[in-house]
Design a protein that fits this description.
By secondary structure, the chain is an all-alpha fold. It has one domain: Arc Repressor Mutant, subunit A (Orthogonal Bundle), CATH 1.10.10. It contains five helices and no strands. Helix 1 crosses helix 2 and helix 1 packs antiparallel against helix 5. The longest helix is centred in the last third of the chain and has 16 residues. The radius of gyration is 11 Å and the shape is globular.
Amino acid sequence: AANLSALKDRLKQLGSFETPQVEQAARALIAQRGLGAKDLIHPTRVAVTGRAVSPPLFEVMSIVGQAKVIGRLEYAAAHLAG
């Protein structure tokens, strides 16, 4: 839940929600927290798409849009936190 919340906070700060910017924000968080990519990408995929498998995640996030992605991450983080 903490990683999803941190990603949500980073995504809120983006001026552009295009695929490269979304991917850069996620990968910077992965590096900063010393995570494996799967530790953030897989939970994010499920939170955003509701599925374990999807088209390329960062493209999907860009298409879904900043407001909806942030809302879905908030919802998932709240439910994972209990």
